[in-house]
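Researcher: Sit down with what I've pasted below and flag anything odd:
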Amino acid sequence: MVDISVMTSGVLHGQVVSGVSVCIAVCGRQGLRSRIFGGSDAAPGEWPWHTTMSYMAMPNCGGTLISEKWLITAAHCFDNTSSEKKRDPSLWKVHIGFTKMGYTPEESSAVTIIPSKIIVHENYTSYVQGNDIALVELSQPVSFTRFISPVCLPEKTHRFHFRSTCYATGLEDVPESVPLDSKRSLKKVAQTLIGWRTCNCIYNTHMRPEVSNPAKPGMLCILDTYGEKGPCLGDSGGPVVCNEDGAWFLAGAISFSQGCHLKDNPTIVTSVSFYQDWIQQVTNSSVTFSPQSINVTDDVDNDTCSDLLSNLTSGNR
């Protein structure tokens, strides 16, 4: 994975109390400059909104901190044959402010909190059908530091610059023989952001009915054309963030793909801006959506995708 991350300024993240605007945090600001160039390890404070959720002591999904008490993740993280048990918040832990998990002693910046609520979108049935979004309320608020702070939330009118580079974060992949609760680092990976129509254009080049048109309204996609890097199992619900004029906005939560970072197989993510009304309703408007500070007019999302296709055949990998 090759990437360069830049320390930037953020957007005020506040709320109005009795007609007075109160600043409660600065969203979308990296705590420290990255000292990793040409690598994939996340530096302390580089992605302070990233969270990992463990279920019964096993890392299970990613998430994104959006306020001192709320995080966004994927609804399917709480699926299993006994979904009500998987939706029991007492069986989960949320890990924030870390770059390494499973190490002793734990990083001094790391915080672990048990959730108090897990709220899955009421229209969610399966990740392939959409509405793959959930909100998790923490049992106690976190204190914001250089290592823990919220990402900026995009309003429903927000327009992302498609075909630009954004970033996904998640725990490093491990071989099948290695336990998921072993020592693992937080990783970052650069990906190209595209819209759902362009995403379907790429999938439809496979000429396989079972993978045709998997993306729907309310979804975005990310890809590495040659499939050399990208999200994999356990990264579900994790953030895809894009830098706009010095602030990092949450484009979406990782949902699903046809396989781990295969060429011409974009990863589908749930578009956060699409669900602004739902998020505000569930959180009782206790989270803030940040206005867009740049003008994006080239958010082209259509059936043209030849520039994004790999020129490698399966025998060239």
About this structure: Confidence is low (pLDDT under 50) at residues 1-10, 12-24, 34-39, 313-317.
